[in-house]
Every structure is written in C-alpha cells, then in structure tokens.
Predict the 3D structure of the following.
Amino acid sequence: MLLVSYITDTQIQAQSDTAHYVLPEFEQGTVKMKDGHSEVAIMDYNTLTEEMIFYKNGVKLALDSLEKIDTVYLESRIFVPQNKVFYEILVKGPVSLFVQHKSNPVDGGNPSGYGETTETGASKNVASVTNSVHTYKLELPNNYYVKDATQFWITRKGIFYKANTSNQISKVFPEKSKEIKQFIKENKLDLKNTDDLIKLIVKCNEFAR
C-alpha cells in the first residue's frame, strides 16, 4: 500500500491551474520500496511542494515516508528520495548527476505607476502542515507567478556537491580543474543547458577513473 499524505481541495484546484509539474500530464509510474515490493500509480512530480503526487480513487495524494522508498520510475525518468524530496538521476556512475526539480511562487507585485509593477522578490510559503496526517493548505496570491529554482547536484565517493556552475564542479575535481574548463570552452558548453551539463559530467566520469 502506498504511503501517502492527503492534500486539500484548495491545493488541487490551485495546482491544476498552473504548470509546475515535471511532466505535462500525469503518467503511470512505479514506486519500488526498500523491502522489495512495488506499487503502480498515475503520478507526476510537483516542483512547488517538491512532492511525488499520485491519483487514488480520483484524489491527489503525496508519497510519504520517503525513508521507506528506494526508487520511483516515471516514464523513462528515475527518481530517488534525498533530503526529504526527490532527485532525478541524469547520469549514473562514479560521478552521478542529479537534478532537484524545484520552483517558487513569487508575488508579481503591485502597480508602481506608469503601468509598471514592483516585484516583491519574496517567495510565498507554499504549504503549511496543519495536522498529524500532513494535510496541506496552499496559499498563493492571485498575481503570483512560478519561478524556476532548479538545482543540480553531483556525487563523488558518496558525497553530494552542488553542480550549477563550472566553478562548483571544478572544486569537486581540483586536480582536473584546468581540463574541465578547457572541455567546457572547446565544446562551447552552456551549463544552464541540461544536455550540456550531462556531457560535462560524462567527461568527469573519465577523470574519476
């Protein structure tokens, strides 16, 4: 039986009006538990609440007790629980690359004159736990927009490191810093592009041998 936390109708309605899921539509996925058994459900990953959401009897629920979950397979994607959220695996090897799908709701601001608006810059609190079964109430302003806050991570020897810039990656391989920067330059890699970042981490796996 899937471990869940319940979501209120308020949150469901707000989520259905915004595009803050990893997939454009809910798809069939498989949850593999650490005890060996698996469950199948229609799922998608919510980047605002950083929860794996699935349907059960017409209701949206969130996977809970992540410490008991080994892996989630969603379409061709693979997610693993990490730091109370899920990371998607992009490269698996001595140096693995993960993406933390994340977004923040930001207040669009109030009119400041001459047809302009002032952005508050402060993200709203997405959800607050209201009771012991983890029921949430989503509180978003009417004029909010969703701002991407995706983070990339790499692991080396079991330790997680941020991997959003060339400098962050080079620090993980100080002995190969020059070669990494040269590889980025020669291949004209833009590390904000996921495919380019994957190419770099594949190269880093060669350095790690």
